[in-house]
Amino acid sequence: MGARSPAFRGSFNHWRDVIWLLVSRDFRGRYKHTKVGMLWSLASPVMFLLIFYFLFQKVINLDIPRYASYAFAGIIVWNWTQQALIASASSISSNQALVAQPRFPVAALPIISVTSSMLNLVIAFPLLLLLAWIDGAQITLVLVALPIVAAAQFLLILAFAYIIAAINVSLRDVEQILPIALQLGYYVTPIFFSMSNVPGEFHGAFLANPMTHIITAYRDIIMYGQWPAWTSLGIIVAGSGLLLILGLRIFKHAQYRFLEEL
Amino acid sequence: MSGSVEVCDLGKQFARYDRQRAGSLKEAMRRGLRPARITEQFWALRNVSFKVQPGEMLGVIGHNGSGKSTMLRMVGGVMHSDVGSVTTTGRISGLLELNAGMHPELSGRDNILIGGVIAGLTRKQITARMDEVIAFAELEEFIDSPVRTYSMGMRLRLGFAVAIHTDPGVLLIDEVLSVGDLAFQTKCLDRIRRHRDEGSAIILITHDLTQVEKLCTDALWLRKGEVVAQGRPDVLVGEYRAAMARDSRQRTPPSMPETITSTGTTLRAHENRFGSMEKVIEAVYLQDPFAKGVREIATGDALSIAVKFSGGSGPVPIVGVSIGTVDGLNMLDVNTESDNVAISSSEKSNSIRVDLDRVDLTAGSYFVNVGLFHPSWDYAYDYHWQAYPLTITGSHGPSGKLSPPRSWIASAENRPVSAGDDGNEQTGTWLTGA
Fold this sequence. Notes:
The complex is a heterodimer. Chain A is mostly helical.
């Protein structure tokens, strides 16, 4: 990464502490003042689950077995990506005071955004496992693959996060466009419907979307007790790795402009 | 910790774009692939060179927008220079924006950890000095309460305490030394002096010129990104003050209606009244302790100076009061900034009063001068010069202007070489003013 580059300054221990303390700040700060604390982060995905369940089981039947765990997996996995990217977009532009600190590693900010958003997934996960169990899923050895899938998703989000954060500093429209793009992404990902509901000629668009493969991998593991499709995961990891290298370059290139544009 | 800074021919160029900034997609699409249409390149900083050796402290003065903060950012390594170089040795620490990154819902203790990692320490290093930081901030009793329950002063104390406990080799300070009450400020200044004496290289940006005179070993004066002068702090501060007076004179409207003060003096622009008149002094009253108007007091009497002023729009002004001789020599010069007085300024009318418990001046003619200044000291909004005469009656000295209560104690030794236990002592007391 180039130790001389200011945005990446600091020792490993310092980075670890910065990330840990700022993630815990975001998280505890968000819910400390509320009565039921972090359970609030469950409210929105559960509400969406109820809506989808009513719409696509009762109103229009999509004919997806184990629909509750199926949809909930889609919702919470997508939410991580969505929340992380939106948080990353403003992670530099809304933290001018931190960017101006001579010894603060600015490149930690996107990592903090992605990690903070992951905690909502972690909180919702027990509920997903419970739903899957109610729907008849087995607890199998395959669950050990979960951290690998989560790591692949982390890498994927982070690669985009660096690019988005760096570009948003000089092109603020990113902050406006991103929610719209993500909203579109919601319907090009099998979150509340399945690929079998989609006519064949459109499959290409869905399969080109890495989130389709990520969500499918989670479902394979949790609902069906199957190992994820390693090939597609491998491609995502490799692609994200390349994109991350590009993202870091863009970020490094843009870092000196951060304070000028803010 | 020891450190140094060497800045050589530093320059930074900023671009002013067409209309607004080019930071919108519409703009980016309109201009397509052509480079941004930059109407004007300007130097935010140019040809700046200086050295700060271990144990030295450089005071940087200049109006807002003179490039002070840009320079500090380049020294801090968070902004790139276009020309020139910055070389630093030692760990860089900044007293820049206090409380950056802190969260109001978390406790003071949690926020010390957060502030500490942001300032570049590891969690372990912060934990090791936690008690010291809490003690410095004087927040022992409140440290586990959420910061949202803290007063503004407590928050700033917390932020300052964290930032100062970072073993700086190079310490960059941007306008944060007017934190908290006077006692805490003194403590902060002592701590900074200690860092300086222990070998830190310090750069101080401040509007408080007295701080530059008192603390700094060197001074640098910037105007529009260029160095006006650099050298001895007292000399530079003097020149800077003179330039402010000139600037106020230039901003004074060419003609304005004459007004008559409570003491019967006529105020005329450019004669005894200067300033931009964005905010104006409406009335000034010299009063005794019973709020009765006075124009004459005896040596050692109390005096209150009450000022009524219009708030107008814009920032909260600094109110300054001085007592000077007819020749213009100031015997007293105080203001709300250096005395750390928080003043509220409403759009309409405001009043403020300074009570002097004793005025120990020798008999003679003096003037009270009153000014309303821009908070950055760039210029005066309204300055009434020699418009309020004050006569002091009582004791005349052969020369000198001070006549405090005093006593003379005379003693004589009987034997030139002795332990002094048998000395004769004659005491006389002479109280003035009564």
